[in-house]
Amino acid sequence: MSEAVMAVVKPEMKSYIWLQTADGSIQQVEEEVAMFCPMICREILQTGMGSSKNYAISLPQRVNPAVLGLILDYCRFHQVPGRSNKERKTFDEKFIRMDTKKLCELTSAADSLQLKPLVDLTSRALARIIEGKTPEEIRETFHLPDDLTEEEKLEPLRNITDDPRIRLLNRLYARKRKELKEREKLKNVEAEEERVDQRSVDDLLTFINGGNGDSKGVKTNKNKKKNRRRKDPPKDSSNNVNGNHNKESEALSSAFHNESRPSSSCNLQDCTAIEFDDGDVDDDLDPAMKEQLDREVEDFARRLNSDWPERMQEILSLGQERRLAPININGNGSARRYTTGLDQR
Amino acid sequence: MNSKSKRQLRVPDRISGLPDALLWHILSFVETQDAVRTCVLSTRWKNIWASVPTLDFDQTSFHDPDKFWAFVDSVLLFRHSSNIKKFRLYMKGKDVDHSRINAWINTAIRRNVVELDLLAGHPFLSKLVELPKSLFMCKTLVILRLRSQFITNIPASGCFPSLKFLHVTFYSNVIESMRELFSNCPILEDLTVDGLLLYGVSLNLNISVPSLKTLRIWFDKDGDDNGASSYFINCPKLENLDVTEEFSSTYCWGKAKSLVKASICLPQHCSNGQPSFYRVKSLLAGISSVTDLCLSAHCFEVGSLPAYENLRRLKLVIQDCFCWELLTKLLKRSPILESLVLECEVDGCPQEDSDNDEGSLYEEDSESEEGSEHEEGSENERRSDHEEGSVNEQGSEHQWNPPDCVPKCCLLHLKIVSIRGFMGERDELEVAKYLLKYGKVLNKMTISMDHLDVNEKEKIYKEFLMVPRGSRTSIVEFM
């Protein structure tokens, strides 16, 4: 039907552009309508094609004749300069009413022709179809293959509650909130505020390291580390950086599904480096200890996700002026010197 | 499962064939909750959500704030490290986790966010969140919308290097530092200031932004106009002004000769006894350089107007209580007016208990005194009009007094007149006929009469046929 519209013979005054779709069929279109498409416009201006049937402009593969008709209808309406916004909007709303299959084709074709306003219009329409629907409904609407395993479908639900990094984050936030509350309380009390602050930050550092229970000195900490080292290698071998990354990206939640299945196992085994104690740790950590902790964090980070140290930094800085030494994951200088042995790669 | 997938294969899905970038674009229009949900659709869709450059978190659909926080944490943690173009965070609940919000904003900034839209906490019940310093220094931020109050410690310099669009929402607990925001944006072009000011609260803003081109002031007020706000606008490049206010505030202008378009909407109907809108004068005075003006207001005292030397297109939204005085004055003061649109709104004014039968006849040139605020009956003329020809039952009480000499614009420039929502009332008819009669260069007059029935329309056609035309080429079009 759209071909017929376009083939209407117009008086000689108008000039036409010839377009060829992937299937070989050629159509002619009024010049000003065709020029509304950036891609066609560029072709005309740069290569001079399109002026006759033999030199028709080849359109991208994603544009078939039917959808080209729709696109040209759109262009024909919108290239007229005098229209009001209301008129354009009304046209768009009517124009976009079509079945999803056609809508997808139209989106694809508009994208290949770089017709941004139409891409936005169709994308928004598709977005409206997607939002608010359950996955089953979406699959139904778009005829998507249901080719994920049950395991893969449940992955996101599991990760959100059990992922150690999420747990770490929660701990840190809770800690920070507590710290802020205490600071509020102590605001009226003179002295000792400084010390409290200091210790809170150190507490955070300790937590990253793995919540050393009741260790009071360097020695004890070292021992603890040794224990952890022994524990970790066998579990580590099952994971590598790539594996981690995949697991991360599979993650996500439907927290809103309200059916989080608590899983006893932790998916990212190497995160046993973080062992959480519920008890508060009120160590007085000396600078040397802090250095060590920084490196621990770095190793941990390297194993997980290159962004992690920066994210940790943000969380830890949390508005405070005192900051950790910047963690360099490329591992020069101090990092190299101190290998925990946890790093298997 | 096998047979099902076979069946599905026969009907190819179209959407998965789209390139990744297009799928991200589509998902950028849905809330992040829905975007993330797509990860269980199929293998193709497993990781699409993770690169969508728009994040839209709205706590409204989460009943449990903890779940919402966990959700946002997870998304930020597990998505790919691609840039975040737009980050929207709406948390309307009372309980606000400050450290989390800070961390989230920092994450967005680290991902080169271009647009930030933040609402944190209940306007009156929550403790205010302090925005991180990194926000002010962010080099990629172009659009910032603060929909609730925040504590802002603005750095001394280097603030908002790329910010072009700023939207600030004020509530009655006005934070001092929020008012400083606009002064610290070196290349700001578009500023929107809105919010809800409760009873008695006044807002005094100093808007001195050298680069500003568009300014929008949209305020709702509750209660009586006891605490009027005042605005000092000193923006030498200002081109567009859009004001919607319940009650008019006082406007002081610096240099505003660049103003091209102004739209003023004062939706509050004032009845007898309420302060008169003398303040509108200060507003109207400042916009005298415009070429396009749209004015929607209920009755107010029309004092002396400045000359609108450049005004070409004028649109008036007319309520029942409209004073035609204003139209007369505007016509006289706009020598090159080309297009006039009158939009008549029905039922915009609340019904009044006591109609003021003998309003004082308002003389054209009297100035409204600054001091008089509660003069009874000092409103615009309201003479009850019992002439026949008034088609509408509401019986408007206005009368159109034609100007003593024909306005220059009618003689030389007025080409287009459009009247929408025409009710066929006596005064409207008089105005239309006047313009038709004296519009010497009038091309077209369009009258749309949606609310009238056929008989009423007939009557009006006849009346118009009788009018001697000022311009031979004029067409009257009834819609």
Summary, kept brief:
By secondary structure, chain A is mostly helical. Chain A has helices at 2-6, 31-35, 38-47, 65-78, 85-95, 100-112, 116-130, 135-142, 150-162, 164-186, 193-209, 218-236, 241-250, 287-304, 308-317, 334-337, and strands spanning 16-20, 26-30, 57-58.
Topology order of chain A in helix (H) and strand (E) letters: HEEHHEHHHHHHHHHHHHH
Query: Which blocks of ≥5 consecutive residues of chain B have pLDDT under 50?
Result: 272-276, 353-397
- Strand content of chain A is under 5%
Rg of chain B, alpha carbons: 28 Å
How far from one another are the termini of chain B? 61 Å
Task: Please describe the topology of this protein.
The complex is a heterodimer of chains A (345) and B (479).
Chain A: H1 2-6, E1 16-20, E2 26-30, H2 31-35, H3 38-47, E3 57-58, H4 65-78, H5 85-95, H6 100-112, H7 116-130, H8 135-142, H9 150-162, H10 164-186, H11 193-209, H12 218-236, H13 241-250, H14 287-304, H15 308-317, H16 334-337
Parallel strand pairs in A: 1-3
Antiparallel strand pairs in A: 1-2
Helix pairs in contact in A: 4-6, 6-7, 10-11, 11-14
Chain B: H1 2-10, H2 20-27, H3 32-37, E1 54-58, H4 65-78, E2 86-91, H5 98-110, E3 115-120, E4 129-130, H6 133-136, E5 143-146, E6 150-151, E7 165-170, H7 176-180, E8 190-197, E9 204-207, E10 214-221, E11 230-233, E12 240-245, E13 250-253, E14 261-266, H8 279-286, E15 292-297, E16 313-318, H9 324-333, E17 339-344, H10 408-412, E18 416-420, H11 426-438, E19 444-448, H12 454-465, E20 475-478
Parallel strand pairs in B: 1-2, 2-3, 3-5, 4-6, 5-7, 7-8, 8-10, 9-11, 10-12, 11-13, 12-14, 14-15, 15-16, 16-17, 17-18, 18-19, 19-20
